[in-house]
Structure formats: structure tokens, C-alpha cells
Amino acid sequence: LVAAAAIGATFAVGYELIGRLFTHGKVPGFFGLAGVAGFLALVMLATRFPRIPAWLSWLRLWRNTMFAVGLAALGFSSGTTLGYVQNLPLAAAAAPCQPPTELRLLASTEIIGPLQDAISAFERSEPSVLHSSCYSIDITVYPATAGNDHGADAEISAGWDTSADGPRPDVWIPASTEEVDQAKSAATRGEQFHSLGSVASSPLVVAAPSDVVAQLPATVAGGVPLGSIDQDAANEGVSLVLPNPDRSEAGRLGLADLTDSLASTPLPNLGGSASTQTDGGTLLCQAPHPQSSAYLVPDADVLASNAGQLGASGCSQSPAGYLTPFTPTGASLLDFPFTAVTWGSAPVPGALASDEQDFYLWLTNPREGGAVLGQQNLGPPSGGRLPTDKEVNHAMQSFHNTQPHADILIAIDDSGPMQVEPQAPYVNQIKQAVDGVLGPSGQGGDLSSRDDFGVWEFPGKAGEYQALVPLAANTSPQRGSVPAGLGKITAHGHSAEFDLVAAAVSPPAQVNGGTPTSLVLLTDGDDIPADAAHNNIGTVTRLLKDHSSFRVYVIAFGSLGCKETPTNQASSLNALAAAGGGTCEDAATGAAALQQQLATVVSKLSTGE
Amino acid sequence: VSQVRHADRGRRATRLGVALPAAGLLSAGLLAGCIAPHSPQPDASRWPAQQRGQVTVTILTGTDTSDSAGDAPIGGASGMYQQLQNWWNTYEKGTGISIKFATVSGGATAEHSEMLADAEAGNSAYDIYNLDNEWVPEFAAADLIWPLQGHLPHTDTFLKLPLQSGEYEGQLDAVPFTTDVGLLYYRPSLISASEMKLLNSGHLSFPRLLHLASQVMSEKHVPVGYVGQFADYEGLTVNLLEIAHGEDPGMFAGNGTIADQGGLATALSELAAFVTPGTAGVLPGSELDYEEADAEAAFAEGDAVFMRNWPIYYGQIRAATVGTGAAAAKDFRVMPLPFPSVLGGQDLAISKSDPDPAAALTALQYLTSPSAEQCLFQAGGFPATRASAYASGTRPGGYGTQRQPLCVVKSPPPAEFGQMVEQAIAHAFLRPRTPYYTEFSSILQSEVTPELRDPTSDISGFVATLTSTLNNAATTGKAPPTLAGGASTP
What we know:
Strand order of the largest sheet of chain A: 13-12-11-14-15-16
Structural class of chain A: alpha/beta
Distance between the termini of chain A: 98 Å
Distance between the termini of chain B: 27 Å
Largest sheet of chain A: 6 strands, mixed
Number of strands of chain A: 16
Largest sheet of chain B: 5 strands, mixed
Largest interface: A-B, 81 and 83 residues
Shape of chain B: globular
Helix content of chain B: 40-55%
Strand content of chain B: 5-15%
Oligomer: heterodimer
Strand order of the largest sheet of chain B: 2-1-3-13-6
Helix content of chain A: 40-55%
Number of helices of chain A: 25
Number of strands of chain B: 13
Shape of chain A: elongated
Strand content of chain A: 5-15%
């Protein structure tokens, strides 16, 4: 009984004291152990003194002492062990993982869908690949803002603006090495690019719907240069459409191939190639004019469309139906280089560099990442043919010379009701939206450097309008002047939309910046039939008919929206837009939605849709 | 880096372990030593000395989605963040500190990626991170932010739960800047008095709410019963946790693990049972692609009886004046969700790489001051983290010795709206407090989405595996061999 009690007592002390202390580390554990051992030693020494209680006298025999020490050791060891294990915090018991290294990955829209699948597979196989039971790398992959790959190229060269472009990438996988070369030569803030190599490939092909295939006998024969296909198509009334070269690398390379192949022909037969499609998949999903178009896109997109796997582009299969791919001789190949980006002089942390390397090796392993990308119709890593920077720039210049440019005037109604609307002052929303599209960090609108824009307010302080930002080319200084211009707006008076339209169509000589070709009116209209300069809906409608190329779009505010109209007259805002070949839309609610709405209207004007 | 904190505790225990045996109080002292490290203590970490000269405190944040910047006194601001920045830079020049908001666009995943990568790299370009509150444990455990315990006076003036959202393991690591809580939007013209009484009973589970929606749909010929956020993103986690928490308030343990999988199993079964293919129904399959704005659009179009969404949409729906939105603006009300909501919102934390955290703390105190909170709520539309911001009849004042108000609010939200938001916050709950929340949520989304899309799936068998996987992720961040979060995209 005594032995059992002794074991129980020492077990309890071991469990509650020593075991718990060891959960906090070896040092406190050993201190506790030493303390208890010391206490016991004192007890043992005490038994050697002559006057001790009778019930402890049996310890005077060494045999009994050793027995007691044995029992105590048994109790302490078992109690300590159990106390340590059971009281260990759960996370500590499982050996906590370090937080994973965050890897920001900017990818071309041409590869982002397959890459997402590959990253999911990588994260699933991380423990075996990296020989760790923890998440070591967290990869966040994202495309360029609004799918504008070429815009992202420019942003990388300019140092990257997180407010407009999202996270600053550690790794960049553009569609081709040509983009990296352009970024290297344009880098302004010490950005450095280190390409580890291609991760996949996809050649550019001409994809023809079944109705069109029969019209292109020379193409069907195969082994034909792109220029001959273009000529063949033009002769049959078929356009060769490619993704917008101002936004898409596939479009730029395709254009360079075509221009190179058409050395003696100045104007390629490009159909609606300046429209807003940002990559091959999106182009195939929209498939403009399928009866009379063939599409110059990456091979992977054609295979994906025919297999019903175009999901990442917004449709499962092109509405043009089955597409027959033809590979022109000498066509470019998207090579998707894995490019580590260093921003400025700061060295890349070692863990990050190591993780980048690990991911690249996995991605290019044909049995691992390569297999996942292959299932998404991408070819193995390759360094195929690419045009030079000079060839691409020459092609883009030729292309721009064939494109009409837009001179867009944004006119903001700053009449009193636009400011005093109690729930949401429209003028404030408009300032945000205009700055969001045309300001220094503006997005959307598809304006090229050949396009001009200006911003007016109406009524102006001294007349029917005031130029806040004079009409000028879409350059950084022009965009930089937008916030200051918008800051001048003060609400007063009544809307003078008729005088404004008349002035926009034929600006007086004192207005610098030239004559706009299109107008976006942001107004709540007015119930007054004629403005100060005696313009009314009748005179302005006639004026617009005389200037039939002048476009007018209206975004209408207020409770009536596009239905606002002068007393006893037809809907003037709808009529204005109709006379100008555009549309009137009720304003979207909220600055963000309004910005998107304005960007869409500007895009229609800049791309000539 | 979480080991750093454990080591601190070890040192405290060591000191106790030496002192107490010497005092002859071995047993009691050592037992006390076991308990003491878990008690919240003022953090004695030393901050670098305050710098002299002009200092710019840069705050990295997501896009400012406020309704408005208010009006005077400082013009030209496009949102409430910028208004607060402009006010300070105009009236507090004398402090030698200026404030600058830097934004990262692309949504929550992009923000998290940028902030985490920046913090891990030891970048000193940003002094303060405006963290979604579920990220605070991750940044705190990894020692990427300065502990604020003991550095901020009068924290008791914050609402209790928003303040807790900035704490990790009993220490204050971030200060609540804005908060958020799910609300139930409904159209009163569709709801009868008896149905309203049922709604106001305050104890309506998710399936009972959807049964009520079904009843109204058939009576009033509305195509959809309930719109929430069920797309494969953080919104799905939030909506699912709310349903599960309504079934079992004790489902989470303190370390972020699921202590009782019953609530999760019930929630998933209920949700899956209501999802019907197509675009119409109590909870149509098309909703599996809905995020906040999609839900708002459907509700504003008059297509749904109920909507679960955040308070920021109150102002937006209310402001609609044209088209079908104008009709919705006149015919909608909000109330707290009949089951507890997840507490959203953002907390300000000082980067460990900030060379002058004292200056950052000055900015942080201003941005979370009572006047700033009033501006954020009354003009910006963000639920505030202080009760004083909801008080009716008061308007934002100045800060410090400056009387010039931080913003001017011409059209504040109705007083009853503020009271209702405050009431909903009081009944909300925090997402699992684990440093590995990102992995937890990512796994939940990637595993649940296919189950919801497949009407033949066996939820009961799935939940046991899912719970085990989630608990593993919540405690260690470990990647399971067969289940894993997919690639993150904004």
C-alpha cells in the first residue's frame, strides 16, 4: 500500500510539475526536475539524523532507501513523460510550420488558365516535391489589369503601380521573350529581369471556320507563308483577324510576321483587329464575322476550342464551330519565359529565389508541371522563332498608321443639381470616374498614343463651357493634368448641353487643342428648351447631321435619366445621342460602376466599334 | 517565426523557475509559472527611437470603396481614406508627420499577396498594413508586425468584437479601422405582417429563412428566394461559416480548429439541398458564381426576396435613382441576419520593418479616432469600430486641438440603420483565429465548391474528411496529401 501511494504521489508530482514545465522547454523542465530531486535528497539526508518520526525510520536501512528511490524514479519518469506529452500544445506537438513564402506571379492571359491548373497541382504535390510536410510556397497568380498584356509590359518597365496594376510581381511569365527584351530596354528604375527559360510553347496558326476553309485553297495546301494566306484570303473576301496588337503579344507577333511576309504590300488585310479582344481565346469566343474571317491565334487556343476547353476565356467553344488550324511557314511561337523580376537594387531574399527555382524546375518537368500544361494543349518548352524588337516596332508603326485615331471630348455637366443631389453628389462620382479612366493611373478606354482627349465642364464660369483639360494626345503629361483640371469644377447654373454640343462640333478659334471628333456628355439634362447662345434640340440635331462623322454618347443622371427633356419636347438626350450616331445610357450607380461605364463608352470611340 | 513568441514565453518561465525554488515555494511557484505565460501582459518590446525631421507614414491598403469623401473642409478627395489623409496633411503639419495611403488593386487575394510578400521581404516602403482582420494572426505569428499591447491607451472605447479581431493569443497586434457585418436585405412590399413577425423573432435558422423565401416567391412570383455569396472565393467561406455557426455556435475551438463537425455537416447538407440548377429557385445554381456585386445587382433588379450582403451596399442601393434600381431604392429594408454573422473589416497594423513605429502609432491613433470613425461610417459607408460613431444627432468633429471637422456629412444614414449595424456587430463572431487561415479558407472553398455543384454528392461522408483536413491546416498549415487549396487568383 505504501509503495502504491509513493508511486502515485511521485507520478502526480512528475505529471503536474515536471512534465508541464518541460512543455515550456528543456531549461524550465530541468530546473523543476532538479528542484524535486533536491527536495528528495534533503528528505533522504534527514533520515540520517537520529531524531526522525518512527514511520520514516525504516528508511535508515540502505536497502529500503534504494527501494524508495526506485519507486520515486518510476513514478517521476512515468508522470513526467505523460505530463509532457499530454500537456504539449497541439501546434507544438505537430511541429508548427513556418508561414509559406509568398510568390507573386504575373502571367500572360495566353497562359493563365493552364497555369492556374498547374499551380493547383504543384501545391498538392508540394510535400513530395519539396520534401516538406508544410506549405512552403504560396503562389498568387494574376493576369494584367483588364487582360492588357502589353499594358503590363509598359508598367513593369515603369516600376509598377500597385494601385492600378495589383501586386508587384516576383515572377513574370509573359507570352514571349520578345516582351522581356522590350522591358529590359525600356526599364527606367533599375528593374532587372532574369529569365530561367521557357515553360511551354504554342505556335501562331491561322484558324479557319469550316465555311472559310473551302475559300482558301492555297492555305489548305499547307507550307504557305503568312503573307500568301493573307493575299489568298483577301482575294476571297476573307479577313485575317488577330487579337488587338496594342494589348496582346500574340497580336503583336502575328502582325510582325504578317508585315515581314508582306514586304511589298503596305496594308495587311486585318479586318477588326483593333477591337478589344485581348488574347487568342477571347477572340475565338467572340469570333467576329465567322462567315468571312480567319483568326490568327495561338495553336493552344484552337485546340482548346475544338475540345470544348476554352472556359478560361469565357466560353467553352468558339461560336464559329470547329476550327481548322493552318501553320504558316516562318510563324512565330509563344515561348512563355519564366522571368524573375528584381525591383531596383534590393536583392531578392534567398528563400524567395530558392522557391522560384523550385517552382520553375517543377513546371518544366515533363512528368509534373509539363504534363499539366500539356493537358491544356500547350507544347513543351521551346525557344522557337521570334521577330526582333525592331521588326515588331516597325509592324506596330505600320499598323497604327492604318488605324483611325479618335479625338474624344469628355463634357461634364456642372450645373447646380449635379452637386446638390442629396444622396450622392453626381459631380463627385464623375470626378472619380473620369480620373479613373483618363487620369495618371487611369484604366480602360483603350486609348492609344495616337488618340487625343480633352475634358470640358459646362456651363463654364463665363460662358457655355470651360476647357479643364485641353484636347491633346493621350500622353503621360496629358493624363497628369486631369486631376488638376477636375479640381476646378464648381457647380452652378443650369445645364447648357445644346450650347456645349454646338461648341464641341465647331470649337471657336480661341479654344486651343483642336477639334474633337466625338463627345461624351455626362449630364442630367435640363427642362429649359434653349440655352444662352440660343441653341436648342432642333438646331443641334441639324448641326450633327451636317457633321455626320461626329459621334455623341450620353451618360444621363438624375431621376429621369435619358428621359429628361425640355418642356413639351421629345426626349432631348436620346435625340442628341441618336443624331450623333451614339446612345444614351442611364448612369450606373456608384463611382466604380460609373468608371466602368465611362471606360466602355471611351473604348467604343477609340476602337471605332 | 511563431517560435519567436514561444521562446519569449520560455524565457519568462525560466526566470520564474530560478526564482521560486530559491524562495522555497517550489510547487506553487512552478505551477504559477505554467499559467502565467498565457495571461495577457503589456508587451515590453522596445521600439526604435522616434526619428527626427519630417516623416511620411505610408499605409498599404486595398482600394478605397467608400461611398463618399464627405464634403468640405478639404476638397478634391475621391474617397474617405484620401479625405482623412488630406485633413491630417493640412491641419497637422506641425507634427512633422504626414500620411499617405498607397493602394493595391485586384481584390482581397491580391492585397494579401502584396502585403505578405512585402512584409516577408522586410520592405520598409510601407509603415502600416490595413489588414483584413482574418489575416492578423498570420502576420502576428510570423512576427511581421509590431505588437501594440500596452502602447495604445483607452482601447476599451472600441467595440468589443472589432477590438478582439486585432488580437492574437491575448495580445493586441492591430487596431480596428473599419468593421463589417452581414445584413439581411429584404423588400417589405413582399413580406406580410406574419412573415415579418417571424423574421423579427431573431431565431431563424438558414433553412427556415429559405423556407420563408420559398413561400414568398410562390405568393409574389419572385424568381429567386435568397442571394448570397457562393462563388469560389472568400465570400463562400464567410457564408458557409455563418450558416454553420447558426447551427452550432460552439463549432470552433480557440485555436481555430473545428471542435464539432456537426454544424459544418448540417450547413453543407442544407446548402446543397437548396441549390437547384438554373437561374431561378430559392437558391439557383447560378448563384454559385455570385460575389457581393452580383448579389446586389440581382436584388436591386427586384429578382430576389432576400439578400445577404454587407452594409456598404445599403448606401449604394439607396442612392440609385434611375432604372429598376430606383424602384429597389424605395422598396428595401435591412436587418441583422437571423443567424450570427462573420465579423469582417480591416485592422491597422504597424510593419515590423517600419523604422519609426512611434510615428506610425500617431497616424494610427488619428485614423481610428472617434471623429475619423464617424466620417468612415456617416460619409464613407463603412461600419465603424467605435460605438460613438453610431450615436444619432452627432456629427464628426476635429482631432487633437484642431476644431475643423475631419469631414462634413450632409446626408448621414438614418439613426436606426446605425443602431441596427451596431446590434448586428454585437452578435457577430470572428473567423477561425489561426495563422493559417488563408490555407484553411482556400481548402474549404476548393473542396466545397465541387460538392455544391454536384447534386449527387454524398455530403456526410465528405464532411469527416474535410474536417480532418481543415483542422490539420488550421493548426499547422500543412498541406494534405490529397486535398489542397488551388492557385490563388484575385
